[in-house]
Amino acid sequence: MRKFKTRIELEAHIPTHRTEQRYHCTTCLRGFARKEHMKLHEATHLEQSARDVLQCDVCPRTFLSKLGRQLHIRAAHENQRNYPCTFCDKRFSQTSNLKHHVEAKHFANKEQSCEK
């Protein structure tokens, strides 16, 4: 049995047990359930100079996806943090970041287990 510190880590682990991984990386053969996840993974095998990189219009940070750049701009440069934590005064730009924060900071001592 594998143990995880947070529910977020457990939820990220669970898909590894799914057998329906229709898409496979052409370099390492790692399987993915979603084509877009496989494409993002495949880009990690390319040399930095060969990657399709998108640069932030405000700072030198670069991204492999339009969504990544868009989320960065909203959070880092437009300060859009529409998701407040109900346990403290922190606010987040994405629900996934809020969820991770709550699990890590407010429920950190609750160990999660995977039975498989």
TrEMBL record:
PROSITE patterns per UniProt: ZINC_FINGER_C2H2_1, ZINC_FINGER_C2H2_2
Alphabetized UniProt keyword annotations: Metal-binding, Nucleus, Repeat, Transcription, Transcription regulation, Zinc, Zinc-finger
A single GO CC term for this protein reads: nucleus
Domain C2H2-type, first and last residues per copy = 23-50, 54-82, 83-111
Q: Which residues form the signal peptide?
A: none
Among Pfam families, the record links this protein to:
zf-C2H2
**Listed GO MF terms:** zinc ion binding
- Could you confirm whether the keyword Endoplasmic reticulum appears in this record? no
Cell compartments where the protein resides: Nucleus
InterPro entries in UniProt? C2H2-ZF_domain-containing (IPR050636), Znf_C2H2_sf (IPR036236), Znf_C2H2_type (IPR013087)
- Specify the protein name: PR domain zinc finger protein 4
